[in-house]
Amino acid sequence: MHTPEDYIYSIEDVTLRETALFLHSFILSYEGFTCKLAYKIPFYYRNKWVCYINIYKKHSIELAFIRGNEMKNEAGMLDNRGRKLVYGIIIKSIDDLNELLLDEWMQDAIEVDERKK
């Protein structure tokens, strides 16, 4: 695998692949974002690492925010699962996604990234 797209298209489960493709496109739709493979998974950057997507327990995708501990998380849906900095959400399919909530998290993550220039 050499590109984030290679990673995504290598996901065997069709539902997870479609979910990862949606998240990939959604994240890259925000100004200034780029994506590179790091640790063999897609990481999304602006000024610094902002978030990543990864297979979670073979049956879901995690969207994780690198500095999630600094995000508002008003809905309480982002979980650190014992990590100090990284908070994320586990997604089983596109049907689980709330685009308004995703947008709120992305806007919040962008604000955190801007403070860390």
Major sheet characteristics = 5 strands, antiparallel
Named at the architecture level, the CATH assignment is: Alpha-Beta Complex
| Global structural class | alpha+beta
Number of domains: 1
β-strand number: 5
Termini gap: 30 Å
SSE sequence, one letter per element: HHEEEEEH
Mean pLDDT: 94
Sequence-ordered SSE layout with sheet pairings:
Elements: H1 4-9, H2 14-28, E1 34-38, E2 41-45, E3 49-56, E4 60-65, E5 87-91, H3 99-115
Antiparallel strand pairs: 1-2, 2-3, 3-4, 4-5
Keywords:
117 residues; alpha+beta; Aspartate Aminotransferase, domain 1; five-stranded antiparallel sheet; globular
Describe this structure in words.
With 117 residues, this protein is α+β, with helices and mostly antiparallel strands. The chain has one domain (4-115): Alpha-Beta Complex (Aspartate Aminotransferase, domain 1). It has three helices and five strands. The chain has helices at 4-9, 14-28, 99-115; strands spanning 34-38, 41-45, 49-56, 60-65, 87-91. The longest helix is centred in the C-terminal third of the chain and has 17 residues, at 99-115. It starts with a helix and ends with a helix.
Concise summary:
It contains 3 helices and 5 strands; from the N terminus they run ααβββββα.
